[in-house]
Amino acid sequence: MDDLRDKYLGQIAGAGDEADLETVRLAAVGKKGEIALKMRELGKMTPEERQQVGPALNALKDEITSAISARKAGMEDAALDARLRTEWLDVTLPTRARRRGTIHPVSQVTEEVTAIFADLGFSVAEGPQIETDWYNFDALNIPGHHPARAEMDTFYMARAADDDRPPHVLRTHTSPVQIRSLEKTGAPTRIICPGRVYRADYDQTHTPMFHQVEGMAIDRDISMANLKWVLEEFCRAFFEIDGIELRFRASHFPFTEPSAEVDIRCFWEGGTLKLGEGDDWMEILGSGMMHPKVLAAGGIDPDVWQGFAFGIGIDRLAMLKYGIPDLRAFFDSDLRWLRHYGFGALQAPTRHAG
Ligand code: PHE
To answer: Which of this chain's residues are annotated to bind Mg(2+) (predicted)?
Structure first.
């Protein structure tokens, strides 16, 4: 019995890993292990011998079993210690230099515009940037041959060679959302739609992608006077400058009749645009009374409903309000520019603060 104990306790102590330990366990206390074999021999013994040897074997079995569990626990602790040593982390090391992102002026201005129009009862609508020919042009009373299609320097999407449907376009303005929104909600309605638009154009005041906010208000008795009031109210709230001066200039758009473009009085001073005085005018939006054909394309009866629409250049608004000289820099992703012209994450849009 003592030999057995010495042998197995020795093997347990010498086991290199858990697999070794399992081998020892099977050999010693497994169903076919050495102690089980000895137990079987009990049958051949005299009752006196059995009374001695039986309990001793059971005690030995318990001793070996607990020695194995103790060794196993020791191995697991050692493994954990080893892992913790490799995963050690010095939490007292200095952190990385703090780098703060900024809110892009376009995002900031979009928020400001949305907040002002929300106060005026306009909700936000959306539409896709890849648009069908119909929504971008036909539904807005710009038929296939219309010169406005060429003037807008449209980006056309590719179609398969055997596909003769009109190609999709990158929307050239946010006006297609007028139609999409009317289809969804009908009249009366008051919406704005800020978003990206695309035209093949590039100079100090034009980039191939830029931002507009479309506006549309429809009811039974909406007039040009309402349009003028809303736009003036908006500009006063947005620019926060006494004496902001707007100029309504008769214009032409296929989707409005009559139409007006709106300019804002400004002048250049040392590379920066100043507002409210001077002899220059910067165009910031196109507008007008919605054409009956457009109302009909949106599924509402032009004999019952009428409305105004406008499209404002968001990037232009940002340049004017925050004195940013070159539009192209908006989209260069130059971190120095962003740190200079960007906004803090908690900087509230103008009207939310009030
Ligand atoms: N869609 C026009 C443009 O992009 C702007 C506009 C919108 C004009 C709504 C009138 C009414 O130039």
So the answer is: 257
Q: Using CA atoms, how far apart are residues 112 and 108, in angstroms rounded to an integer?
A: 6
* Candidate from 140, 152, 175 with most ligand 1 atoms within 8 A of CB, to mutate: 175
Check pocket membership of 286 for ligand 1, CB cut-off 6 A.
yes
Mean pLDDT per 10-residue interval, the chain, length 354 residues: 90 91 92 90 88 90 93 92 89 78 93 96 97 96 82 87 90 98 97 97 90 98 96 93 89 96 89 83 94 98 98 94 89 91 74 44
Q: How far apart are CA 314 and CA 18, in angstroms?
A: 69
Instruction: Please state at what angle helix 18-29 crosses helix 2-14, rounded to 10 degrees.
Output: 160
The atom number, within ligand 1, closest to the CA of 175 reads 1
Q: Contact 314/112 with Cβ under 8 angstroms?
A: no
Residue 172 lies in a domain: yes
Residues 170 and 220 in one domain: yes
22 is known to lie in a ligand binding site: no
The tens digit of pLDDT for each residue in 242-293 reads 778 999 999 999 999 999 999 999 888 887 778 888 999 989 999 999 999 9
* CA gap 128, 112 in Å, rounded: 22
What pTM was computed for the model? Answer: 0.71
300 CA distance to ligand 1 middle (Å) = 20
CATH number of the domain encompassing residue 306: 3.30.930.10
